Amino acid sequence: MFKIDYAELSDAEILGEIHAASWKEAYKEIIPHEVLRKFTAEKREEYFYKAIIEKRGQNAVIYKDDTPAGLICIGKCRDEDRYDTYGEIWGIYLKPEFWNMGIGYELMTWGIEELKKQGYSKVTLWVLKDNHGARRFYEKYGFFPDGTEKEIHVGKVLKELRYEMSIPCAPE
């Protein structure tokens, strides 16, 4: 059984744990080890605490049988070349022990429904070009690369690809 709740300040520790665990496993072959070693649950907890206070995005936690399993952050699309009709999945992460159980699908569906309720008709997200598992997940869900790339610097230069999709039955 799944339950999804918007995060409160008291959830910052949980969000930090999920984010750090997911990054360390998902990116271990992509991001340098010295960078991942510094990507701690405590540092991510501080980030989420500030993000919740400053209302940067809308964070939510998914629980499987009352155990925190993943997080999603949604909001207005942050890209200057997109219109007000675009929402964004700022991030979606699961603890590795909850991968391949349908939880990511549930969380993505919830996030897109929330964006739809907020009036968005399209949604974007960014994914590391070398994160083939995440790219397969997004493509299976209905996202497609729109041809936009950017570089990020995390111990080395990596490319991110922007994906997008129309929200089914969203107001135009």
Placed side by side, the strands forming the largest sheet appear as 1-2-3-4-5-7-6
Give the biggest beta sheet. Answer: 7 strands, mixed
Domain tally: 1
CATH class: Alpha Beta
Apparent shape: globular
How does this structure look, described?
The protein has 172 residues and is α+β, with helices and mostly antiparallel strands. It has one domain: Aminopeptidase (3-Layer(aba) Sandwich). It is 34% helix and 34% strand. It contains 5 helices and 7 strands, in the order βαααβββαβαββ. It has a 7-stranded mixed β-sheet with strand order 1-2-3-4-5-7-6. A hairpin with a 3-residue loop joins strand 6 and strand 7. Helix 1 packs across helix 3. The protein starts with a strand and ends in a 6-residue tail after the last strand. The mean pLDDT is 96.
